Amino acid sequence: MVSLVLSGFYLPKKYEKEGELLKDELFSSGVIGTVDKITKKDDGCVLQLNTDHGKVLVMAGAEGLLLKLGNTLKISGTEYLFRAASNPGQFDEKKYYYGEGFVYRISAKSITVTDSGYYVFKENLRRLRDKMSSSIDASFDSEKAGILKAMLVGDKSDLPEDVKELYKKSGIGHILAISGLHISIFGNAIFLLLRRLRVRLQAAGGISIFMLLSYGLLTGFSVSTSRAVVMTVLSIVAVCIGRSYDMLSGISAASIIILTLNPGQVQAAGFLLSFGSATGVALFNEYIKVKNRALKAVVFSIALFAVNLPVIMCFYYEVSLIGILLNLIVIPAMSLLVPVGLLGAVFGAFGASKGALFIYGSANYILEGYELLCKAGERLPFSSVITGRPSGPRVLIYYLLLLLPFILSGLKERFSGVSKDDLFRKAMMELFPVLMTIGFFVIFTRHREFKVTMLDVGQGDAIVIENSNGNTYIVDCGSTSVKSVGKYRLIPFLKYEGVREVDALFYTHLDKDHISGGDELLASDEIRVKRFFVSDYFDEERSDAKLFDTGQVLRDGDMSLSCLYSGEGGKDANDGSLVLLLKYRDFDMLLTGDISSAVEEKLLAAYPEGCDVDVLKVAHHGSKYSTCAAFLSWCTPEEAGISVSARNRYGHPSEDALSRLSAAGVSVRRTDREGALTFRAR
């Protein structure tokens, strides 16, 4: 608890400034630090450098692989700050790396070794790890080798992205990391083996602890590994000194140690899931007494799902229901896979390749079984459900309901003297199912409101409209400055909002900066798009789309989307854009695509009565050829949103357009400065 309070919302003190670079393309002439970790990548390697002001991530070439742990380096290159997420649901690079203790990253131009001294033991462990990885590579195809290396030695550099996604969606992604299960199997197996060989108790304990710490160093000491090592070491120490081991005390000790060394971990998904799982196991082990092994496994699988559910929803916005069943098969099989895999890797590392191949036989079958289970589970309806991110109060209420039986049984035991086991069993039978039903209702229920979000997609447009009845509409999504903008910005945002299907997707026109992300969404099987519309200008170019013609209106309760212009007679792609008027009760917003002032004048002529709106989506990212003064007088917006990249070669938004908006008294908001812009009905 003390370490949780001390951690607060940790940020390294030296680099708290927001932005992409420490300075504009700052070139560092000499960052000095000691190599603490080397990770191989396709185009070179990544170094973890310990410096006087914190850990630094160094993007290096292949020459970095020749370095040794403990070498002191002088790095010259470009220094970058980690980027904060600019959209809800987007991966927050800044939060993640600051949580890991890194202060910035460097793209190295030159690396000079100033001291060739190195950590002999750590370096030998790294070489052993490399040999174990090579042994696995030589014995399995690339896919299975990537999985096994991630499971056994913490090397995820060759783990295929599609396999990682398959395991995650199936609810068994946790086995791709060094977890408490691995450590407990490894540590306890060594300790029991030594005791069977009649090694003295204290000596067996000392050797086991040394091996555990060495394995932790070899695999990189992730949060889950660190927790499990501390807890397993404490359990061995307890046996050696003749004391009982309390799992909850072990969890507390591990959390204090980890958060004291790195307070930022308190906000990390890995920390919360690892400690949540361990706490769930400890509580249910103490209170639930089930003799039947199969029934106990089912109860524990459901219990761990319930404990981790809010954390999974808060970080990943979707949950795997099939994972409850798959873990009943996967976790017991790990008890064979981990020792067999480690034994084979060690045999292979020391040159016994034939013995390694023989040992690996069962590991190969287990991995094939995992893949078959995941693919079979994927075909089941509702195997994975998009939930959205729950609010803080809902998470708090959920956990209070979850803990209520424990609290009540403890209080009643204190005041009545009745056995807590009897009380808790009764509470679980009578109260827990009701409380969990209420808890699931609380955590899964979302408050729906009307809002319009202009996502930050760099140089491009992406507008998501959410109606109060739960329906969702998208107008454009594309970018010329952000790669895979649909995968990394649009789809995560939709999941964050709990959107499982899009009622209609509109392309104002077919330039890449308006459609690249939308095409990714259409090709994805994660979120269904029910209807797809384009302007008259491009009607024949997209056979999968329907025309949204001038005068056409799409109605949805209190909301309507009207087409004021459908590109008829447009001379180019930009002037062939759809122009849409969004209305929701007293809220009005004009969506203009990339039209120029020539089309703006057509709108003035076609609708002489004017178009009084609250918000204007500024055309063509603030081009000087759009948003003329007469047009602003015609639509009289109070606010304007500009979707634009901080660095673009077009000079958007232009000073001319900004001056005209200012002269008209319009409040301007920009994605390059604020990130995603949200507009709500008053």
Structural description of this entry:
- The protein is α/β, with parallel strands linked by helices and 682 residues long.
- 47% of the residues lie in helices and 18% in strands.
- The protein contains 22 helices and 23 strands.
- The strands form five sheets. A seven-stranded mixed beta sheet has the order 15-14-12-10-9-8-23. Strands 16-17-18-19-20-21-22 form a seven-stranded mixed beta sheet. Strands 1-2-3-5-4 form a five-stranded mixed β-barrel.
- Helix 6 runs antiparallel to helix 7, helix 10 packs antiparallel against helix 11 and helix 17 crosses helix 18.
- The longest helix has 27 residues.
- It is globular, with a radius of gyration of 29 Å.
- The N terminus is likely disordered.
Number of strands: 23
First-to-last CA distance: 42 Å
Content-based structural category: alpha/beta
Provide the β-strand percentage band: 15-25%
How is the biggest beta sheet arranged? 7 strands, mixed
Total helices: the number is 22
Report the uncertain regions.
1-25
Order of the strands making up the biggest sheet: 15-14-12-10-9-8-23
Oligomer classification: single chain
Shape: globular
Helical content class: 40-55%
Mean pLDDT: 87
* Rg value: 29 Å
